[in-house]
Amino acid sequence: MTDTLVAPSRSRFRKPKSTMSHEVHHQAFGKKSRRFQMALLVILVPVMMVPLYVMISAAFKTSANADVSTMWQLPNPISLDGITAAWKALSPNFVNSFEMVIPAVVLSCLIGSFNGYLLSKWRFRYDNVIFTLMLVGMFIPYQSVLIPVVKFLQLVGLYGTIPGLVFTHVVYGIPITTLIFRNYYTATIPTALVEAAAIDGAGVLRTFWSIILPLSAPGFVVAGIFQFTNIWNDFLFGIVVIPNPKMQPVTAALNNLSGTQTVDWNIVMAGALIAAVPTLVAYLTLGRYYVQGLTSGSVK
Amino acid sequence: MATPVSELDVGRTAAPARKRPKPRKHVPRGLLWLLPSFLIVCVFVYVFIGYTVAVSISSNWRAAKPDLTPTDPWYANYQTLANSGRFQADVRNNLVFAFFFLILAVLAGFLFAVLVHNALRARGFFRSVFMLPYALSFIVTGVVWRWLFNPEAGLNLILANSGLSAAYERVTGSPLQPDWTSSPAVVGDLSGMLNKVIPGGDFIQVQLGIPLALMAVVLAAAWQLMGFSMAMFLAGLSSVPNEILEAAQLDGATGLRYYRSIVIPLMKPFAVTVVVILTHVAFKMFDLIYAMSGSGIGFATDMPGIFVYETIYKALQPNIGAAAAIVMLFMVCVVVVPYLVRTGRRDAHD
Lengths: 300, 350
What we know:
The structure holds two protein chains of two kinds.
Chain A lengths: L1 H5 L1 H7 L1 H6 L9 H18 L1 H10 L21 H41 L5 H9 L10 H10 L6 H27 L2 H9 L4 H9 L4 H17 L2 H6 L8 H10 L5 H34 L2
Chain B lengths: L28 H28 L19 H7 L2 H34 L4 H9 L6 H11 L5 H8 L2 H9 L13 E2 L3 H7 L12 E2 L1 H26 L3 H9 L4 H12 L1 H17 L2 H6 L11 H10 L4 H31 L2
Antiparallel strand pairs in B: 1-2
């Protein structure tokens, strides 16, 4: 009982439907108390949305209207001036971010799925030690490897380039994607399937290619959206691996825009909105999978 | 060697046959194929950390001329670091920040999880709304919070317009218009006391108290990361079997009593995970504060993460910056490594 509780992540993959829709209806509280709790929830929603309200409403204000003393008012008239100006400043970096995030997500998910398959379906000595040693990599503060990373990228000629940034994200994404896929395969693919393939003479690669990969689509969605958000939102590697502001990802450009005193407030907020839109869209469309990645990525 | 079904699998629904095929060849094939990834991680994590350690104990390493001759004594850079007022402030800030942030994020996360779990309807909607901040970049939210905590705008406007500030003025004589992140004030300074207790304690140059500016940062960080602890506790709450509730009700334990005596003890493993993850996030905190307030006045909101970045890339002192990075790594490892080893051991019986 307690043991199943200690590893909540694995069971998350098994029955996503039931945990998501909370089929289990607790009736620990009486009707009155539950109504009160519901009221509390309804009040908490606008409170939690305050920063988003400020960001979005300011993004659609005219520069003349964007005084901070009227910060809380709705935009009137609604104007796209802020968005246009912010887009002009951020669009090259926005494109850079996409050029970084797409290959990085695809590569790190492919590597993660292969590793996760090996660790969940093949037994070898010290597999847990090896896995734990790899996992440490997702917890370290990246500040502690910045100097050698830059040195290495200079050595191979990737310093200051988007491929260099992609490479960095792929390497440091190996632990988390391996973890997500390992948990996913442990929970969803019966080992008997792999054993049957082995009896039929399929090797490690053949089994992965013909049996595991075709069954991996949901795992790729979970790991993919999780890595997409992580890598899109990264700032530290972006500014360290690429010193040239024109080549940096959008988070770095937004920080520069925000630090420029002469830029109007509505433009900064519009910039924040632009930088947030891809992850917002991903979250709003695939949020269910994002939560799965989150809870399974944090525990073994 | 066949693996018996362990206790871990009791109660799980999927694949009953969990034994993995044993390797038929002498060199385990699984290991062979895992080796490339494992070696890459070893180099980019362990070897690179080793290199940073080497930089941190050398005096003249520069990007253009990587000279790794050690300093004499070898810990000279760490001594410089310990004597730096800014780094002292950073460690103080980091610990104070982690403390308040953890309390707020864990308690709020649990409360929100209970509310969402018990919601009469629209659970999915509430969960999505409360988790949304977590999907955003720290730079995006940092930029927005920076304006919300602007002393002339944001929250202070609400305090002024709602009459709260005026009411506060009638009681205390000054309006309630905090400086938020631009406050240099440190309350509850213990340094004077410490000097008396520890001889030579005067090497501490900063006030050992709670920088008020950090409270704004704590609020912003808890707002964003509360969704994570909520998601974990929601997973925990839905793992409590219905039979337990039924049994509790037979014994007359309902409502708060049921939560206090039964649910909260069952949440312990989830709480451990949340605390470990959030503590390590707090120790690594960088982008949010960098975008929101920077180092602050008198380094009131500075963090080791900001110190490392600025020392290596702005002040061009890679040796000192590397030493600070190793201190950061040490703080994170103290929290994370026991946790990983424990879960690794548990898995070994799997």
